[in-house]
Design brief:
Length: about 400
């Protein structure tokens, strides 16, 4: 397969410039998250002091290093951004390091009673136990009434919009047609996605997960659909090796979702049972590569991960963070072709992404101006989304 060449002129890297979305995350979301974590779990005084110190640093001080005795500190030793302001370094790196520092503050990696305690578990568990989840799962019972093509589109868009309760599994083909009922889809390459899967013998699909809880449930249902329809003989679900970005899915979160499915009724329980068997039969593989929590774009992926993606018939990247890492967290002109910025990727790749940050590529000429005129915050509000494919 011949891949297009990468862009010769690299766009500026996203940093926390005043008034930007990145700056609002650094100045508002991160301090608020520290307080939210503090309220959710009764940490002892030493952990409270560590949280205080991190809060002081991100709101007033330069970037400090991990303590030398922090487990895994060596992996961060040679990063070039220490001593600088958080807003002045690449946003992708700053976010990633903030979460690594937060885990250090709560003792996630250190020997002792707090080792392995997910500081975001209270939030993820509450979402998964929400009353609305049962309603969403019960909607799977209505899929049998759809045509195969309608089921394909319903489950793909359910995975895309999984963190929006009003567009979960309730996406069903009505009189007006499903496409007419899904506003905000700024790019829709879904026909190309299905074409890639139909182009040869069924193989492996890599599904790179984003969030846990109600968003991971439709991802798992999509994985079951790919296996059940023969589009894939194996689905490799890439998860985070440790808690990351508040709600990113770990192996523990995936197992919790499988349990939630099997405890439901109707089609949801059947899906859960099939997926559990698929894990035991190595047809659904849970993988947690260390690079999944690295502060770098995917063009810096290590050789073993590159081989994993190269062996797949298709890699599906879910969510906003994976999109930023896939195209590079840069201020690309919105019309920059998606295939150009993903030219380095070792195989066919698709992005299913709800827009929650400024970075976007692959829009048709004129679309940006139209969106800017009609929906000023369309890049960051989560009201718009895209399905993009590069084969």
């Amino acid at each position: 397969m011949t891949r297009p060449s990468q862009p010769t002129d690299r766009a500026p890297v996203v940093v926390g410039t005043p008034g930007s979305f990145a700056r609002s995350v650094l100045d508002e979301r991160h301090p608020a998250l520290i307080e939210r974590v503090r309220r959710a779990t009764p940490y002892p005084p030493d952990r409270q002091r560590a949280l205080d110190a991190l809060l002081d640093e991100i709101t007033g001080g330069p970037i400090g290093r991990l303590d030398d005795d922090e487990p895994g500190a060596g992996a961060w030793r040679d990063e070039p951004y220490y001593g600088q302001r958080w807003a002045d370094v690449p946003f992708l790196w700053a976010e990633s390091f903030f979460y690594r520092r937060l885990l250090a503050a709560v003792g996630y990696f250190a020997p002792g009673p707090w080792r392995g305690i997910d500081p975001f578990a209270p939030f993820k568990n509450a979402e998964l136990a929400g009353a609305g989840v049962d309603d969403e799962l019960s909607a799977l019972d209505r899929l049998a009434a759809l045509t195969p093509a309608e089921r394909d589109r319903t489950l793909l868009l359910s995975s895309l919009w999984g963190n929006r309760a009003d567009l979960g599994f309730r996406l069903s083909a009505g009189e007006a047609g499903l496409g007419d009922r899904v506003p905000g889809l700024v790019v829709d390459d879904s026909p190309a996605l299905w074409s890639v899967l139909a182009a040869g013998e069924p193989g492996t699909v890599c599904l790179v997960a984003d969030n846990a809880g109600p968003e991971l449930l439709p991802d798992l249902v999509l994985a079951d659909h790919l296996l059940a329809t023969g589009r894939a003989v194996r689905v490799v679900l890439h998860l985070k090796p440790y808690p990351y970005y508040v709600s990113d899915a770990t192996t523990a979160d995936a197992l919790a979702c499988l349990d939630r499915l099997t405890r439901a009724s109707g089609q949801a329980a059947e899906v859960g049972g099939r997926l559990r068997r698929a894990v035991t039969e190595d047809r659904l593989v849970l993988r947690a590569h260390p690079f999944s929590c690295a502060p770098h774009p995917y063009d810096r992926m290590p050789a073993d991960l590159r081989e994993d993606f190269a062996s797949a018939a298709l890699t599906v990247m879910k969510g906003d963070l994976n999109y930023r890492r896939l195209v590079g967290d840069r201020h690309w002109p919105a019309t920059t072709p998606f295939a150009e910025v993903t030219a380095y990727f070792p195989g066919p790749v698709a992005a299913l992404r709800t827009l929650k940050c400024d970075v976007v590529t692959g829009l048709a000429p004129g679309t940006t101006a139209e969106l800017d005129a009609t929906a000023r915050s369309w890049r960051t509000s989560g009201t718009h989304a895209l399905v993009q494919v590069s084969a």
